Amino acid sequence: MKPHRELSIFRKYLEKRGLKLTSERQALFDELFARHEHFEADELLVRLRTKHKKISRATIYRTLDLLVDSGIVGRVRIGESGYRYERLRAGEHHDHLICNECGRVIEFFEPAIESLQDQVCERYGFLALSHSHQLRGICRQCRPRVSSREAGRAASAAIPGGKLRILPTA
Amino acid sequence: MKPHRELSIFRKYLEKRGLKLTSERQALFDELFARHEHFEADELLVRLRTKHKKISRATIYRTLDLLVDSGIVGRVRIGESGYRYERLRAGEHHDHLICNECGRVIEFFEPAIESLQDQVCERYGFLALSHSHQLRGICRQCRPRVSSREAGRAASAAIPGGKLRILPTA
DNA sequence: ACGCCAGTTGAGACTGAGTCGCAATCGCAT
DNA sequence: ATGCGATTGCGACTCAGTCTCAACTGGCGT
Fold it and tell me: Is CB count within 10 Å lower at the N or C end of chain B?
């Protein structure tokens, strides 16, 4: 729980391009590194507002852009609308399992998938700069609840093919 | 180029829930299956408008929802904002390589990745219902252009680690 | 062929997320 | 302490998508 490392990265990032570490930026940074969850921009706004800090929505977005750009925060398209942000630990990377029921986000990392991705890129002469890989469905905790609910409904929603099919969505 | 199969699926889908095949829905369907690219909702609106057909934005979205729900069209989060739609051929599935330069979308399918995904889900007791997997970067055609442009700039943007790193973004 | 009515449409108001312009303010190098 | 470029907050704005509702229509029943 020592965000010092990230703070100095951020500081350096700002310095390098003649930007300033204002009290708003510092406050946002602190709030962000006080937890370790995924969060939305407006969530931060509310949290800071309730903590007496005043900060505008525009500044939240502007600062978030800086943090993403500096590499210590990641911007992810999760859920149906808007972005979510997450702390990024240097050099680490992960993808997401997202529960449609409770919204829980599970991070996973599968080296074999990563290297297969590289192979795919090679195949197409594609230079990958970033990627996004998310699986949506029902998490372990929600499965019992959902399946009992389904039992109540008609079986009409059953997928024809029988076998579990994974279709693209987002 | 015979969309008859899909049309009958759509027809059946509508019938099953007492919905009607209106001229607007038919027109949208036709326009959609006249090509095979990824497209945005507003794009369809424009295309139909220029083809003398009048149709409202709301109807476009409503019909697109039906098509997605019936399984013959897929909704994908590509690019920075909004959705894109794409024809789905029955049983087929693919993921995307997206070029940041020209916007080109390359479809790929890697069975090994799919099965690794299943393994990841098992590991977490997660029931996957859909997934999204996109790599963003520079396509073969754009690479020469981009690298020469980069050469002009300072080398300051070089990634420290040296090795190609793939970071999450969307 | 006709009528009926649930389903459908278009227009425009609305929403939510994010961006922009600008005058007032602030960090910080000197 | 000073100066000035960077930054902020505000509110207006955009953009994609949704909603409401009165007017319209597809297609079943006869």
Answer: N
